């Protein structure tokens, strides 16, 4: 890669050796590639942390852009790569839900997907019981494997040597543990804590982020499992605002929300008596270009509140779509249906 950069930049390249490149990866990428806009998504990105691991910001960008670059089956030298290096959201969805799609059963598909969104981690026995007995997940299949809690997401206690993990209060997937810091790998969730001490051998957390979040309790690693990071990133995380959208349903107003209709042709179909249906897709990407380059099928495109700054750019680039935050769309539908306004 040092050679590639030297070739592209020519005489102006500040990279002369591979170690020059390694050092540059610990600084904002605009210093490595000056042509990258400082105000853009990539300009301030730092790729490696102080331990030479990928930063969470780098992982987030990679999840949007890095896919189909490697044929893992053909080249075993790529086995060290995380799954997001050769998979993207559509690929993960196809792999996970292939069995349910083949059955043609919409209820099974919906229940299976909902379970992965609402239960990305937990005690293995509890997960099985919840999927099999809770009417909310009636018919759900075990479409994704739960793996052991990763070592970088567990904390070894100081008393009896037990290891502990904490679910993110936003997505319920195991938070990363780095010395005394505990935080969700998905930075928009803004879940940041620190280990403040122990109570009867159980480590306790103190919230250090400013957002309103509950402080989770430590759970023992023994007997627990979590979804593979690719399934969490591409199904659980984007599914959270899709589940919130279901709160739009109203018996009084006659509003109905059908999640992932026709095997996920759209993310949701919203209907109300006397109104044309709203077809809805929810998109959560670090860079709005990902949405622009692959326009959603739905007429209404929703982004989480933390992506609301993307809406003007998206509206200019895709004028045939209407863009909202999840909350503003829900308010709009309730308002027009409540007033009986014509669409």
Q: In words, what does this structure look like?
A:
It is a single chain. The protein is of the alpha+beta class and 343 residues long. Among the domains are: 1-53, no CATH class; 151-220, no CATH class; 249-339, no CATH class. The chain has twelve helices and 15 strands. The chain has helices at 2-9, 18-24, 29-32, 56-65, 89-103, 106-118, 124-133, 229-245, 261-264, 289-293, 311-317, 326-339, and strands spanning 121-123, 146-148, 155-156, 163-165, 176-178, 181-183, 192-199, 202-207, 219-220, 224-227, 256-259, 268-271, 278-282, 300-303, 322-325. The protein has a five-stranded mixed β-sheet. Strands 5-6-7-8 form a four-stranded antiparallel β-sheet, with no helix packed on it. A three-stranded antiparallel β-sheet has the order 1-10-2. Strand 7 (192-199) and strand 8 (202-207) form a beta hairpin. Helix 5 crosses helix 8 and helix 6 packs across helix 8. Mean pLDDT is 85; it is low at 67-77.
Using only C-alpha atoms, the radius of gyration works out to 22 Å
Mean pLDDT: 85
Question: Widest sheet: strand order?
Answer: 11-12-13-14-15
State the separation between the terminal residues, measured CA to CA. 54 Å
Number of strands: 15
Structural class comes to alpha+beta
Shape assignment: globular
Residue share in β-strands: 15-25%
Helix and strand succession? HHHHHHEHEEEEEEEEEHEHEEHEHEH
The biggest beta sheet reads: 5 strands, mixed
The DSSP helix count reads: 12
Helix content range of the residues, please?
A: 25-40%
Q: Which regions have little confidence, pLDDT < 50, spanning 5+ residues?
A: 67-77
InterPro entries: pPIWI_RE_REase, pPIWI_RE_Y
Protein name: REase associating with pPIWI RE domain-containing protein
Domain REase associating with pPIWI RE: 239-338
Pfam families: pPIWI_RE_REase, pPIWI_RE_Y
